[in-house]
Amino acid sequence: MANHSHRKRKFVALVVVLAILLSTMAAVAAAADVFTVTLTADGQTKTIDTRAKLPADILAEAGIESRPGDLVDDSAFSRGSAGAITLYRAASVHILDGKSETLAVIAGTVGRALEQGGYTLREEDKVSPALDTVLSDGLKIDILRSFEVKVTADGKTQKFWLTSGTVKDALKLAGVTYKATDEVAPKPESKLTKATEITVGRVTYKTRTVNEDAAFTTATRYSNTLYVGESKISTKGVAGVNKVTYKDKYVDGQKTGTIKESTEEVKKPVEQVKLIGAVSPAYKPIIMKTGLKPISVLQPSKKLRLDENGIPKNYKSVVVGLAKSYSIGAYGASGRPCVPGNIAVDPRQFPYGTELYIVSTDGKYIYGYAVASDTGLFVKKNSCMVDLFMPSMNACVNWGARNVRIYVL
Fold this sequence. Notes:
Elements: H1 2-32, E1 35-41, E2 44-50, H2 55-61, E3 71-73, E4 83-88, E5 90-97, E6 100-107, H3 110-116, E7 126-128, E8 140-144, E9 147-153, E10 156-162, H4 167-174, E11 183-185, E12 196-201, E13 203-214, E14 218-227, E15 231-235, E16 240-251, E17 254-267, E18 272-279, H5 284-290, E19 317-326, E20 342-344, E21 355-360, E22 366-374, H6 378-381, E23 386-389, H7 393-399, E24 402-408
Parallel strand pairs: 1-4, 5-8, 9-12, 14-18, 19-23, 20-22
Antiparallel strand pairs: 1-2, 3-4, 5-6, 7-8, 9-10, 11-12, 13-16, 15-18, 16-17, 19-24, 21-22, 21-24
């Protein structure tokens, strides 16, 4: 009886142990069905322990309602294990792409909105706000498109895609340096625009010195040895020599311009002298008979008629008096130029513009046709009646002071 009682107690104890073991195993199995999920929605994040298998059930268990158009991102969720679920609300957003604007209703991030809208982006394009920004009602998505910029320097062309900046920024990006003398186009401070092409021309200068002909000038002078219409070269012009220094400009090795820096006279040119006839054909008979040529270079008035001795046939009056001479001056008091024939008078006696004809009383000179054009100190000094303009100082010396017969025409 004792052995039977002992076996009975051992059996009861074994049953109890088995019951406890089964209970523990059930509890462990039950606990193994619960897992932790992190939920993000409506700007909030929380965690829940759940046995639900589907994301929709887990959201419902957490009291989060998913509406049509919303996006449930369960890429970080795996059934039966810890994970994360994100709920994006559908939002109305504006997408600005240059001058184009599109209104879209979509859930997710800026990146997804652009992807769903079929927008293709270059790596250099800029998007604002950032691609991982969560969409919200009224959000404006601005796409800043990059454009191609070409930089050509030192025989090499580089291409870049940029959204903004200046020419200077692009050159720095290309690793191109330049000097103040180099030609950069557009200018370094210019803003970049679509299809901007930047060139850098390397500028150098070379100096050279050459001998060049120096052109002679030609002086025209009246001659009482030639008739009107005749001319001759009395002194032939000879070119001189100048040493000229030039500075040549080169851009990328090509000559583009020249600057004259200095000129040094090596040999002075000889002025050419051209004589033109001042003797009117009307004087020809006089010259042929007397051999005297008029000093005046003015052409006689058409109304003047001379006899073979050079005496006017038609005149208003005749006056005899002393005549001196001068050869310095540009314009007379009346404004007429100082040339042989335009003479100085006392305008009270011979008003400016009076036409005269003058010959020396000794018969050695014919001054010829003259016009009252100037006056001088001789009037106050009463030293003579008229002052005759001569072609040179030598002519003045030869004339000296002579009595003349003045015919008023």
